[in-house]
Amino acid sequence: RALAGTRWPVSIMVPNEIIPDLAASAAAADRWVAENLVPYYPATRVKFLLVGNEILSDHSIANSTWPRLVPAMENIHRSLRKRGISSVKIGTTLAMDSLADGAFPRPPSAAEFRADIAEAVVRPLLHFLNGTNSYYFVDAYPYFVWADNNLTVSLDYALFQGGRLRYVDPGTGLAYTNLLDEMLDAVVIAMAKLGYGHV
Prior knowledge:
- By secondary structure, the chain is of the alpha/beta class.
- It is built from seven helices and six strands, in the order βααβαβαβααββα.
- The strands form two sheets. The protein has a four-stranded parallel sheet with strand order 1-2-3-4, covered by helices on one side. It has a two-stranded antiparallel sheet with strand order 5-6.
- α3 (69-82) links the parallel β2 (46-53) and β3 (89-95).
- α2 (26-36) packs across α3 and α3 (69-82) packs parallel to α4.
- The relative contact order is 0.13.
């Protein structure tokens, strides 16, 4: 309500713990949309509805929630379409540890998704995002990479300072001047290896 009429783009998030319920029941997904989105839309400019936060980082919910992520997204998508809401994009946020080498896959050209999620979760997720013209949301924190690798990664490279060439990927020849670009390219390359580099 506080953001109504501001035209500020807003993201809202489905809590991780209710993803299995939304996957199991289209009616539950419809209720969630009716209670948590519809009363505020379109007065509040909701741009993104994110189903869960970094769920693939929590191995304790691997069996209960991971395989239910995309079905929950599909149920929410159907609920939005039933209401004629097409401007809200559905996605989920994933951490860099979705990649096989974690937050710092170097070189980026070698990046790929973890074997435990690549085919079972990420490929169906990318298929959904591609089919709905949505986005892959990634939580990429250069500071954490620097903190864990400060003997090989300089702080100015992590903080976009200096602007000088810092790293060249031997696989692609791409030159990087900051860590964030390197991290994001790793994600795009991993997506491309599953056939969805354009998402």
